[in-house]
């Protein structure tokens, strides 16, 4: 059982929560996410929670204020247990301009979160099986990102299916697949 999230936005009857997690750096392209969230807020109530720390925090807070969404955005800082947020969010978003494997997408899936991600190099398309387990949008396209978030909110995928996909990326599964690839069968 995951510990609760001590934040009023995660209570009963609250608007949907859009969540992201990562360092507040250029690679994560949070300006695109903030602009997308502003577009989403033009259509419906929602909250955005950003887990992470970094040098861009003042700039991102200023952009949220300029977009008139500061009251709906919570820069929650670093949390050693982001999974408790992932398990309770309405949709998890990765807005990165580039990534490696993107562990956070696999982790969000393992928590049963709906996922929307940029189709950046490399990782998200493979993890989401080209959109089978979450929405993929072009990098830097805030309108497409807003539309994909709305679609994920309106038409969620089954949580059990998402969790099962997330389990494909455990260390044990990866080790078994590696051993199988080199010709060692454990069964």
Task: Describe the protein in words.
By secondary structure, the protein is α/β, with parallel strands linked by helices. It has one domain (15-181): Rossmann fold (3-Layer(aba) Sandwich). Helices cover 38% and strands 14% of the residues. Strands 3-2-1-4-5-6 form a six-stranded parallel beta sheet, sandwiched between helices. Helix 1 packs across helix 6 and helix 4 packs across helix 7 (159-167). It is globular. The chain starts with 16 loop residues before the first strand and ends in a 6-residue tail after the last helix.
Task: Summarize the SSE layout with pairings.
Blueprint: E1 17-21, H1 30-41, E2 47-51, H2 57-66, E3 73-77, H3 83-86, E4 91-94, H4 103-110, E5 115-118, H5 124-127, E6 135-137, H6 142-154, H7 159-167, H8 171-181
Parallel strand pairs: 1-2, 1-4, 2-3, 4-5, 5-6
